[in-house]
Task: inverse folding
């Protein structure tokens, strides 16, 4: 017997609230049309084990189920050591395959699955390592196909809420402390306000001219940035209420479709990110030029080292091409508010079951 499952999840951008969302402040976010795709195939006629193809990393792995379970136990031990302050966040997942192994080994693998050959292919249009939620998108798409594959062998129902909760938990291995924002907006799609206590509140769509701008791969991981900010700003710091006020004003601008007000709040939000130290100084001058054309801000965790900060969101009527070409940055028009996580179970003939 051979069956195939496919899942797709969009990328995401935070309009306001990076870092602040970890300190009980609201955030505004949107999904964007840069999907991560996962295809899982089970074949009971082939030798048991896993073959994993990470297309974007040009990596191929062949693993036994026993090896996956053993590696999963090591990843669990590392997380406990991280919680006790014995390991740094970047030491938890040391191999590109670890995130996949973390999903597969999280919970018992049904014996009937372990008797089959499983192949997984993962590819993404999201710019990796740029704060676009690629790890959350990968986790959600992988959880969707993996849980679906287990349904014939386990008394379990697949719900979107459970997928979001599991993805948030597993994101802790990648980021140290997941707010739940990335899994939530990527799973549900659209634009939203997010709060840790109440979850998502959908916002109306608003067609805007938007661009992604890549300033280069950050020298710091998300986990390193989160840890660095936490060392310098505690939960009572005055900066967090200021983030909260900017987010409220940005939401008002969004609801009123007031483009000028939205640009102002994007720029104000960026200044707060500079203040908490996650915007490299080398970006200040070109971003100031972009701010003369429209609203622009760093999106994602940023960086606490080096000259690159990851992705900028630019909203304005004038394309940013000239400034980006001068800096050697790539820029891409994007669609805000794309569809959320979806998954499909296929028969070998390609017909839906």
Result:
């Amino acid at each position: 017997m051979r069956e195939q499952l496919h899942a797709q999840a969009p990328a995401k951008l935070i309009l306001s609230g990076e870092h602040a969302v970890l300190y009980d402040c609201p955030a505004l976010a949107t999904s964007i049309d840069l999907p991560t795709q996962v295809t899982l195939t089970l074949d009971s006629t082939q030798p048991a084990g896993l073959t994993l193809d990470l297309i974007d990393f040009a990596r191929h792995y062949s693993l036994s189920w026993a090896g996956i379970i053993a590696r999963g136990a090591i990843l669990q031990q590392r997380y406990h050591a991280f919680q006790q302050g014995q390991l740094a966040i970047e030491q938890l997942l040391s191999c590109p395959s670890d995130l996949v192994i973390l999903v597969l080994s999280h919970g018992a693998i049904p014996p009937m699955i372990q008797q089959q050959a499983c192949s997984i292919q993962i590819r993404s249009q999201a710019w990796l390592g740029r704060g676009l939620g690629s790890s959350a998108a990968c986790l959600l798409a992988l959880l969707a196909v993996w849980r679906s594959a287990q349904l014939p062998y386990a008394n379990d129902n697949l719900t979107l809420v459970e997928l979001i909760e599991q993805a948030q938990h597993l994101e802790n291995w990648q980021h140290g402390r997941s707010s739940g924002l990335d899994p939530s907006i990527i799973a549900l799609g659209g634009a939203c306000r997010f709060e840790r206590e109440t979850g998502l509140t959908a916002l109306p769509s608003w067609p805007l001219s938007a661009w992604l701008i890549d300033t280069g791969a950050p020298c710091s991981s998300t986990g390193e940035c989160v840890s660095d900010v936490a060392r310098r700003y505690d939960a009572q710091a005055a900066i967090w209420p200021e983030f909260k006020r900017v987010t409220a004003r940005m939401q008002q601008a969004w609801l009123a479709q007031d483009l000028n007000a939205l640009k102002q709040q994007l720029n104000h939000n960026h200044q707060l990110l500079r203040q908490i130290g996650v915007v490299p100084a080398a970006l200040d001058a070109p971003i100031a030029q972009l701010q003369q054309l429209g609203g622009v801000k760093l999106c994602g965790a940023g960086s606490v080292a080096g000259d690159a900060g990851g992705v900028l969101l630019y909203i304005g009527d004038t394309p940013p091409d000239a400034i980006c070409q001068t800096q050697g940055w790539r820029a891409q028009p994007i669609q805000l508010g794309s569809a959320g996580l979806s998954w499909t179970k296929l028969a070998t003939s390609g017909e839906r079951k």
About this structure: The CA atoms of residues 290 and 337 lie 23 Å apart. The chain has eleven helices and twelve strands.
